[in-house]
Amino acid sequence: MKHFSNEDIKALETRFRALMINSLSGFKSANLIGTVDANGQENLSIVSSVFHLGACPPLVGVIFRPHSVPRHTLENILETKKYTINQVNIQMYMAAHQTSARYDKSESEFEQTGLTAEYNHDFPAPFVKESRLKYGLTLKDHQLIKLNDTELVIGEIESLHVDDIALLEDGYIDIEALDSVAISSLDGYHKTQRLNRLEYAKPHNPTRIKPLG
Amino acid sequence: MKHFSNEDIKALETRFRALMINSLSGFKSANLIGTVDANGQENLSIVSSVFHLGACPPLVGVIFRPHSVPRHTLENILETKKYTINQVNIQMYMAAHQTSARYDKSESEFEQTGLTAEYNHDFPAPFVKESRLKYGLTLKDHQLIKLNDTELVIGEIESLHVDDIALLEDGYIDIEALDSVAISSLDGYHKTQRLNRLEYAKPHNPTRIKPLG
C-alpha cells in the first residue's frame, strides 16, 4: 500500500492531486443539470456531485465548486429557482462530458453538443430528451460551505419522469437497465453489472440475496 | 415514460418511496466508516452518502439521516473527531452490507461481520484491512440541514492508504482495478466496466478519449 500524509497531499502537483483526491469518495453519479436564465437562454452542464438527501420530502443535493464551469448553472438556479436533473446514460455520455467545456453564456450546450432540450408538464426548465430518468426541482436551500467556499444547493423534486421498464414493483428503479453510467475521479466513465440486491440486514442473521424485482 | 408529481410522490407507500427516491441521484459510492467511542469500543457502518467536497484541503462529506443506524458512527465522530473511510470492494460487499443491521452499541460490527480492524500510522480510528483504498479523517465541520434534519459531516483527510497498482501516473486512481463497487437505491450492488476516460473538454472541439494511464 502507498501512504500519503496530509502534508504529502498538500505538496502534490495541483492536477495530480485533483485526480487523486477526486477518486477517494468512490463511484459518483453522472447527471446533466438543465436551466434557463431570466431571458430564456438555456444552459446544460454535467455534474458528478448530485446526491440523495431525503425521500419525504424528496430532496436532492448538489455541490458547486467556486469558479467552476457550472457557475452559469448555479446562477440560473439562484435566479429562477427551477432546474432539471437528468441521468447520463451510455448512449450520450460523450456529449454529456462535452457540456463541461467553457462555452460562453450566450452559447447553449444543447446546441453545441447535439443533446435535445425538452419541456414537459409546464415545468419551466429544460429536460434532456435523451435521458431516461429525469426530474424537475424547485430550489429549497442554498448554503455556503465556508471551509472551501463550495456551495450546497438543495432542491425538492416536483416532476419525475422515468422509463416504465426500469421501475420495479417495490419502487426500486433499475438504473442499470437504463444504461446509466458512473463516474470515477474527474474523467472516468463506467457502465455497471449488478452483483446483487441484498435483503435488509438483521443482527445475527446471515446476509441474504434479494430477487431483483 | 411514467410521470410522478410531487403530490404523487408524497402519496406513495413509505418503503416504495424510499426505494424509488433513493434511485434518482444515480450510482452512489459504497464506503465503510470506522470509529471508536471514548472507551475504545469499535464501530463500523456502511454508508452510500460519502461525497467529494474539495481537493485542497482534501475534504470529504457524509450525510447522516436522522435516527438511522449509523447514528453510533455519528456519535463517535462527534465524540472523538476521528474516523476512517474505507472503499467497499466485490470481495467483501456482503459483509459490508451486514454492518447495516441494528447491532447493539456494545457489539462490534467488525466481530459480527468478520471484517478486520487495523490500526495504521498512529491514526486512532480503525481501518478495514480488507479495503484497498482507505483514509483517516479529522472532523472539520458539522451542520444540520434543517429541511429534513439530516446532518452533514465534513472531514479533512489526514492519512491515505491506496493499493499501489491502482494509482496511475497522473494521479487518477483506478478504483475499478480495486474492485470497488457502486450502489443503486438502498440495496443494489454493482461492479463496473470502464467505458473510457475522456480528455478535458474544450469548446468547439470534439470530445476525445484519453488513454487510461
UniProtKB/TrEMBL annotation, chains A, B:
UniProt domain Flavin reductase like: residue ranges: 27-165
Cofactor(s) listed: FMN
Record InterPro entries: Flavin_Rdtase-like_dom (IPR002563), Split_barrel_FMN-bd (IPR012349)
Source superkingdom: Bacteria
Keywords noted in UniProt: Flavoprotein, FMN
Molecular-function GO terms, alphabetical: FMN binding; oxidoreductase activity, acting on the CH-NH group of donors, NAD or NADP as acceptor
Gene3D superfamilies: Electron Transport, Fmn-binding Protein, Chain A
Signal peptide (UniProt feature, chain positions): none
Keyword Transmembrane helix among UniProt keywords: no
Family: Belongs to the flavoredoxin family.
Protein name according to UniProt: Flavin oxidoreductase
